[in-house]
ABC transporter ATP-binding protein
Amino acid sequence: MNNFKTLSPYLRLHRNQYIVGTLAVLGANAAVLLPAYFIGRAIDGLRLFADGNPATPGLTLMQLALLALGVILATVLSGSLMVVVRRSIVFASRQTEYEIRRDLFAHLSGLDKHYFDRARTGDLMNRLTGDLSAVREMIGFGSWQVATVISSFVVSFAWFFSINWRLTLAVLVVFPVIIGVLMYLSRQVSLRYVPMQEQNSAISAKAQENFSGARVVKGYAIEDREIAEYKVMNTELIRRALFLNRVEGPLFAFMSLLMGVAYVLVLLYGGRMILGLVPGSPLTLGQFTQFTLTLERLAWPMLSIGMIANMLQRGMGSWARLQEIFAARARVHDGGRTDPTIHTLQGDIRYEDVSLTFEGRRVLDHVTLHIPAGQTLGITGPTGSGKTVLSQLITRLTDVSEGSIKVDGHDVRSIPVRTLRENIAVVPQEPFLFSDTIASNVAFGLDNDHYQPIETLKSVRHTTPPEARDVPPDMDRVRRAAEIAGLAGEVDRFPLGYDTMLGERGVTLSGGQRQRTALARAVARDPRILILDDSMSAVDTETESRILQGLRTVQEGRTVLLIGHRVSTLRHADHIIVMDAGRIVEQGSHDELLAAGGHYADLERKQRLESDLDDTDETAIADAAPTRPTPAQPAPQPAPQEVKR
Ligand SMILES: Nc1ncnc2c1ncn2[C@@H]1O[C@H](COP(=O)(O)OP(=O)(O)OP(=O)(O)O)[C@@H](O)[C@H]1O
């Protein structure tokens, strides 16, 4: 019931369509029973005519023709009303489906990292498709059929009672059985349906992860294992689906049996009435015919009761699963302390005694730090030491557990989330590219001002669809950003240049190209604060130094957080911090840290040694190489520019 309450606001958006549709169903089901009445009248009239009794002359040819016309008109009327039903209820259900899908997407887009850290894409996709379809079927075809069953029964029994109440009571004998069976069925379906949908979700998630991770699956040659696991999951789905179907199968047969019982009762009891064997309850042949024809019309509604109960249970089960999405709340959002007057930021960042705890585990521990606007902070430290989460706190991907972070003196929790994020560009450790052109990927963060948040719970019939905006990317900006990110040269060599289409998540680019496309995207945004999270790990040191040089030209007045493991990345930063186990364990300039002889100095020494060793190896190879390659010894290839992922 609770679930129905949450669905009703959507149904109310199309109240008139559902009311018109329901009235049309009622009308159609009343009209469809009129032919039985006309035929009954005709039979009685003809029988009297056949008797040849002048006192009861029976039916004239004109009356017979009128009754025949009545049959035709009633059929046309019920057919026309069915068209109205389709155009109202079925249309309304499609529109409701659209509105729920639109609102679900908007709601999901408003959820934060905490939700998506745990959600499985395949499961969400299954809810947005399979579950939403089940809800649409329930409110469309399902509600239509409910109205059909109710109106068929009401109108039929009205006729039955008007013909003969005793015969009607005989038919009613089967109804307690029907109600009992229905209650049992509804309970069974609701118990069995949700586990089946959960398995559907698990299968979708498995398929989605396999397709997204196809390179890993193939790289480890574990296709057969994955296929076997998929098969097991499918077998389980079939088992659960059959378990559900097992309730429905016998039901159809059972309802047919009950229908047969009703016919037998009418035949035996009605027949006795026609023969005059039931005192005080006469029945004419025409009335008997009308009774049986009306009963015949009840066959489909009766047989479909099981299917409808099933559809409603599935729909409500699916709606409950969609409700779980609507019930999820973003932990990070604008609230009472948000100051809407903050529109611009300069980029002065202060961490004041910041701690962060994830599921009882402290990942940042009393961090205090000041990054003046326009300065570059280098962040390094062992893996898992808290570098990424430290930077994520500025964009409020997650909020501090203790202490505060201030940008330009404002606590980040008081800056409107949109303003905050519009002023920051992040190049994450694992860049995400869209299956679009390189130009569109670089320009992804631009052209964001024309869109307003959508109004939810609003009828699609009263909203004008947003104008299709196919704004071409600002190519000057795209090229400049690509130049700075060290990507331009390679893109110019692609046959389609910036119009090159990327595969899903940019898989058709090398790891380094992907990183630099993501970097270009961030630079194109022209942010006040730029966060580069280990975002040059897949490019060689030479390219990296070119990119850093390019960045320095646009860095003026921009605050940059540069996370990295290479001293070459960090050495030009104004200030460098070394993190360990969520704490800042060293800080200072490159020279100060080298002089301090701690972790940073160690790192520098190791990387210098490695680089010296590489140089020595290369010289040795060059010395040993013949001056001219023979066919058997191909010329040494240049070192790969980038680490392929
Ligand atoms: N969403 C999360 N839920 C729970 N723990 C998390 C989450 N994100 C990060 N952590 C934990 O926080 C700690 C710091 O992670 P972080 O990603 O900041 O490390 P890092 O220093 O950037 O490491 P790396 O150099 O490997 O990228 C890790 O122990 C990690 O397991």
